[in-house]
Amino acid sequence: MTWKRKDLLGLEELSSEEISLILQTAKSFKEVSTRQIKKVPALRGRTVVNLFFEPSTRTKTSFELAAKRLSADVLSFEVSTSSVSKGETIVDTARNIEAMKVDCFIVRHSVSGAPWLIARSVKAAVINAGDGCHEHPTQALLDLFTVQERFGHLKGLSVAIIGDIRHSRVARSNIWGFSKMGVRVIVCGPPPLVPLGIEEMGCEVTYRLEEAIRQADIIYLLRLQKERQRENYLPSLQEYSRLFGLEERHYQGMNKPFFLMHPGPMNRGVEIRSCLAEKSNSLILEQVTNGIAVRMAVLYLTMGSQR
Amino acid sequence: MTWKRKDLLGLEELSSEEISLILQTAKSFKEVSTRQIKKVPALRGRTVVNLFFEPSTRTKTSFELAAKRLSADVLSFEVSTSSVSKGETIVDTARNIEAMKVDCFIVRHSVSGAPWLIARSVKAAVINAGDGCHEHPTQALLDLFTVQERFGHLKGLSVAIIGDIRHSRVARSNIWGFSKMGVRVIVCGPPPLVPLGIEEMGCEVTYRLEEAIRQADIIYLLRLQKERQRENYLPSLQEYSRLFGLEERHYQGMNKPFFLMHPGPMNRGVEIRSCLAEKSNSLILEQVTNGIAVRMAVLYLTMGSQR
Amino acid sequence: MTWKRKDLLGLEELSSEEISLILQTAKSFKEVSTRQIKKVPALRGRTVVNLFFEPSTRTKTSFELAAKRLSADVLSFEVSTSSVSKGETIVDTARNIEAMKVDCFIVRHSVSGAPWLIARSVKAAVINAGDGCHEHPTQALLDLFTVQERFGHLKGLSVAIIGDIRHSRVARSNIWGFSKMGVRVIVCGPPPLVPLGIEEMGCEVTYRLEEAIRQADIIYLLRLQKERQRENYLPSLQEYSRLFGLEERHYQGMNKPFFLMHPGPMNRGVEIRSCLAEKSNSLILEQVTNGIAVRMAVLYLTMGSQR
After folding, report:
1. Tell me, which fold does domain B16-136+288-304 have in CATH?
2. How is chain B split into domains, by residue range?
3. Nearest CA among C73, C85, C79 for reference residue C48
4. At the topology level of CATH, where does C16-135+288-304 sit?
5. So what's the ipTM on this one?
6. Residues B17-55: pLDDT tens digits?
7. B137-284 belongs to which CATH class?
8. Total-model pTM
9. Is the omega angle on the peptide bond into residue A263 within 30 degrees of 0, that is, cis?
10. Which of B100, B102, B103, B300 to probe the C interface (max C CBs under 10 A)?
11. Is residue B220 a contact partner of residue B160, using CB atoms and an 8 Å limit?
12. Which of A244, A295, B119, C84 is deepest in the core (most CB within 10 A)?
C-alpha cells in the first residue's frame, strides 16, 4: 500500500495498514542514526516548520533531528515572541508561514483540534505533535515501534497504561494504536483520573495496579502532572505514589516478566521509584531512540504524499 | 548596472536604478521557492547573523528562509539572553560577532539609525530589517515587487497608504520607494497620525478614506498598533475602525477595482473587516511569498558586493 | 601524539602535550574561516548539542559556528523551556538527548562539576563551556592560541590576570593553561577577590596593578561582575575602577610594551577606560576570531576520538 494522507493528525483515523506502513518505513530509517554520517538526502531543500504553541523541547528536538537527518531545512517558530501574541489567529499565522512556501508544519497546541484547524487551511503537510488532551500520534507510533521491535510482533500482547488517563493525549493515542494493532489494552489509575465509558475506545479498566501488572507484557507509566493535585483530582502525590507508583515489590513474585515504558520526562519518586528506571526491563531510552526513526518516517510519508 | 553598496539601510538613499536591480534579481530568485528542492548554492559557506534587538518572528523567519535557500548558514543572536543585557554597546556586540568572520548582519532595532551605526563599524554587510520609526526597506521592496508583478509595471499607478503614518517605518520606506519608481502616493489617516509636512517626501495627503480609495489602484492598510490609543493618539479603536477601517461598502460603487495590501500581522476588525482579507483582490499572502525572493536578492547583492 | 580523551572538561587534567595538540589542530582550522566558503566536511552528519543551563549567547554562538563550519548539525537545547523545569535531573536530560544518537554535548552550567557529571553518564563527547567558578577550558585555550600566535611561542612569557580571581572560571583555566605551557602567571586584584593559597596553582600574587603591569607581556583583564558589589566584595565600582581599572597613564613610561586581553563582554569604564579597548595593543577581537578555530579543533578531536 502507499501513503495517501496529507497530514498525520491522530491514530483514531488511521487503519492498521497505515500504521503498519509507518512502522515499516521507520524500520528502514532507524539504521541512518547508527551511521557515522547520520544523514540521507530524502528531503533536501524541503522546509519543515516547528510551530509549537506549547513549550516542549523534547518532542521539538526529536522532530528537528528527524528532519535534519532527512536533510530538510527546519525553522522554529517561537510563539511567545511571535505575531500570535499580537492577536493574530492561528490560521492566519499558519497561512502566512505557508506563503513562504514551506512543506510541513509540526504543530503542538494546548487546545484539542488546533492541528486539524491548521491542516484544513493549508496545503502543506501537518503533523500533530500533541494537542490538548486529544492525541499525540507520533508518541504512540514510537511506542508501537518499540514494542514490535522488542517482541517481533504486536498481535496478542497486553499493555497496561497506568496513571492519569483522563488528561493524557499519550494514553488516548496509545489506546487507539495498540488496540488497532491487536494488542489488549488495560488502563489503570485512580477513579477520578479514568474517564467513565473509556471502555468504548476498546480497552479494559482496572483500578488496582497489581491486577494490571499481573496481566500485562508491558507496563506503560504515564507522567503524573503535579498540577492535578491542585485541581483536586488527587488527595496527595504520596497517596498516588503509594497506590499507583511502580516499586521494587512489583518485580517480585511475578509469574512472567514485563517491560517498562514511559513517555518522559519521568517524575522519579512519583510514578516510579528512582532505581527502577534503569532496570534491564526498561525500554525508556529505546523509546527516545525510536522516536527519531518514527518521525523520519512520518515526515517522509506526509511530505512525499504532496508530490 | 551592478550593485555597489555594502549595506541596505533604507530606500531614501537608493536610486530608482538600484531599486530596479533588486526587483530584477528577486524575479530570478522567486522561481527557486517553487521547486521541490528549494535551494541554490549561491551563498554556500557564508554566515548570516540575525541580530534582532526587537522581537519579530515573521521578518526574522523570512530572512532566515531566504538565507537558507541560498545555502548560507544562519545564526540567530537572541538579544534578551545576550551580552547586550550585560551592558555592552551595540557596536561592541556587532564587532565581536564580526570577529567570528560573519558575512552579513540583519539588524532590527527599536531605535532609528541603529543599523547605520553598526554598518559603519563593521566590514560585513548590514541589512536594515526595521529601525524605530525610520525605515523597513525590504518590506517596501517586496511591496514594490508585488505591485510590479501584478500590474506588469509601476509607473503611473496610484497607491493609498492608510493608517498610522506617523509611527510607521513601513509607510516611510514605501513613500520613498513608490514615489522613486513613479507611483503616485496618497497617505491617509487621522490627523494626529499624519505628520505635518509629510508632502515633502513626495506624497499627497487626505484625511478621508473614501477619497483615498477613489483615487488608488492599490489600498495599502497599515497595522494599527493598539498602544496608540493609550498614548492618546486615538479616542478609541472603534472610532478608528469606523473612520479608517476597510469595509464591505468600500467595494460597492467603485468606478475601478483596487488591490489590497497589508504588511501583516492584521488586526482583523480594526483596520479591516475580517471577511475582506481573503477577497480575491487581496495581495497579502503574495506579499509574504515575495518577501523571500526579495530578501534572497538583497542578501545576494550585498554579500556579493564584498567580493 | 593523538588525542585519547572522550571529553574536554578542564585544563587542570590536561598535559602540555595535549594542550599543544589542540593549539596545533586549531592552527590548521583557522584558515577555514578566512575562505569565502567557510566550511569543511570534517564532521558532516554528526550531531552537536548545545546544552546551556546558563544563558550565554557569545560562547554558544562561537561553538555553533565552529560546529557548522565543520558541517555538523547543531541543536540548541533551550533549558528554560525544557524538561529540566519539569523536575528532571540533568543526567536524565542528557541521557534522553543522547538516546537520539547525538555525538557531542557542549555544556554550560552554573554549578561546578555539572559537565563532569554528564560526561560520566553518556558515551557522547562532553565539552565544558563554563561550569560555576570552576573551569572554562576553551576560553583559556583560545587565549593561549592568541598569545602563541602573536609571540610565536609561549615559554618564557609573563601574563598578569587582573580582577575578580576568586569567582572567575576564566582565571582558573588560564592559570592552569599558561603555567603548564611555561608562562609565568601573576594574578592581581583586591584582596577579598584573590583566594588565599592560590599560589599553589602555580601563580604569583600581587595586589598592585602597576606592579603586575610592570612585569607582564600580557595584561589579561577579567570582567567585573557588578553583582560583586551587592555581595559586599567591593566598596564601590568607582573604587575598583580607580585601583584596578586600566587607564591611559599605565601606557606611559613602560619599559616594555604589553598586549591587552579580555574574555568579553567588557565593562567599559570599569575594568578599562573605554578608549583603550581599541588601541593597537589590544588582542580582544583576535581572541574572538581564534575562539572559532580552537572550538573547531576541540570538536574535531573529541568527536574524532569516538571512532
Report:
1. Rossmann fold (3.40.50)
2. 16-136+288-304, 137-284
3. C73
4. Rossmann fold (3.40.50)
5. 0.91
6. 999 999 999 999 999 999 999 999 999 999 999 999 988
7. alpha beta
8. 0.94
9. no
10. B100
11. yes
12. A295
